[in-house]
Amino acid sequence: MPAPSLTSVAFQWKKFLEDKAMAILKVKQTKSRIGAPKDQKRTLDSLGLRKMGRVIEIEDTPSNLGRIRKVRHLVTIID
Asked: Which structural domains are found in the chain, ordered by start?
């Protein structure tokens, strides 16, 4: 049996990634960053939250959940 071509392997991989949908979280910044430590301000920046009331959509990954946990007193998760 001949080996599959590179394009067919790439197509199968792309289809696999498309089928495997990640859960999406909506996160809203509800409290001000004024008075928060620098590391928490940087965490908000890395999430993409720069102003109060902003809502972002991010994938449900362990790294993003860790970021949210670090600033959980400043944000809420929306359904």
From this structure: 21-78 (3.30.1390.20)
